[in-house]
Amino acid sequence: MANTLGIVKPDAVRRKLVGRIVERIERAGLILRGMKVMKLTREQAEKFYAVHEGKPFFKSLVEYMTSGPIVVMVIGGHGSIERWRELMGVTDPAKAKYNTIRREFGTSIEKNVVHGSDCLETARREVGFFFREDEVLPKEI
Ligand code: IDP
Ligand code: MG
Fold first, then answer.
1. Cα(28) to centroid of ligand 1, in Å?
2. More exposed terminus of the chain, fewer Cβ within 10 Å: N or C?
3. Is residue 102 very low, low, confident or very high in pLDDT (cuts 50, 70, 90)?
4. What is the pTM of this model?
């Protein structure tokens, strides 16, 4: 019952897709355990995506992720890490399965609308990057 981190990226917030994305999370039976709206600084975005430093798309990715407000979410429920990744679809919207969030709303491999942690270790680190312990609902609630 581990939590995972979800992000509604700046293009999706700008296009007013937050409600439709949250609706999919709720309909899938996943649980929102934390949520906030914020705008990343360059430093935060570079740190969050440090694993991609040096890749050709890194600079553009940081520009994109700092281009406007985002919504960060702690998503819980059974199999949340894998199930949130399934709801999102693969990185490139053009290759994502029908009815996934990225396929429906993504406009390019970069502007793919949402983020999700890729494994347990990443999920722990990424939730901790944005949320203090007292900002995440405990599992009993
Ligand atoms: P993921 O978000 O599906 O886990 P990652 O490979 O971790 O994909 O890449 C992080 C983010 O960087 C992607 O969500 C996307 O916004 C961007 N990105 C990944 N690959 C490319 C690319 O080849 N060109 C441009 N942007 C990319
Ligand atoms: Mg990733």
1. 24
2. C
3. very high
4. 0.98
